[in-house]
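Pipeline run #58 for the internal structure catalog. This entry was flagged by the ingest filter as a single-chain record with no existing model, so it goes straight to prediction. Upstream metadata was stripped on purpose; only the residue string is passed forward. Reviewer on rotation: M.T. Logging verbosity set to normal.
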Amino acid sequence: MPDGEVRNDRKGALSFGVVGGVFALLLVLGVGLGAYIHGRYVAFERVVARHVPADAALVLRWDVEKVTLFEPTRRHLLPLLEVGRRAQGGAAPASRSERLQQATGLSVGRDLREVLVVLGPATDSWAVVAGGSFPEGDVLTGAEPLVADLGFRFGGKDRSTLVAQNGVALARVDDGAFAAASDLNALGRVAKRRAEDPNIPRTGAGSLVIRLDRPGLPNHVRAALASLGELVELRTVAEWGSPLPVQVSLRFKNEVPADVTLRFRRLLEVLLLDPMVDRRVGPVVLQPAGNLTVTGRVRLDDDALEALAEQAKHLVAERIGAASSRN
């Protein structure tokens, strides 16, 4: 080989510039894919707490992004999506949620992040707002054939709201969340975006506010809380943790019962279906906080969360049943 000649032993070798260009392209694609995955499946703005009407009798918000609350929700509440689905002959048909994903790309089990439930002010008035990393676009048009067996049809020329024969309405609100309600009036009330209510934090594990001085509470909820005395308001705020820490506040009308801690403990025994409630929530102690109010803290373990999710299932199923019988 003559002096100064460089032998190229590898046929078809790529130059450094080509390799560098390919690497840069892969890097850009990787960053783009990572940004898409983060935006589609991880990052999202919590919005449902901004849809609380001022005159609601009961407001419940819970975050299902973490397994602590999502698993009980998945087992007890997501099956309610199949209510009213008619079985077909032959092989078992795909569920309504599976067909919804096929038609719209929306997977309830994957995309749902938070839920808001509102009851009142009318006795039969209710609304549910669901927030999450939902796909953009016209999801309702793809969903319409899937809920046709429940009597849903588009109401109005703009095709923005699905309305059933019994009055139940479903729409997508401006911030991307979905809202369902007992009627168009209730839907309009929760569709409006409002300032945040400090009693219903926008973030955190969850919160519950019940106002007994307002109409719209189910009779059995009012009857259960009557065991506490002349209660005006119950508030709870749950933080993230395992067990789940929950701050409780009770405000009374005229006086705080001397045995309020015992009464609250008995109420928990009924709700959790467990006479040994201490092993589910820890020691129950309520302390005076002024203005006819007592506060305390409980810690809900997994079994307690399961029991509460099951109670919520019965409450929602009852409302759905009432709506289905209204024509």
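catalog note: The two ends are 96 Å apart (CA to CA).
catalog note: Residues 30-38 have pLDDT under 50 and may be disordered.
status: ready for reviewer M.T.
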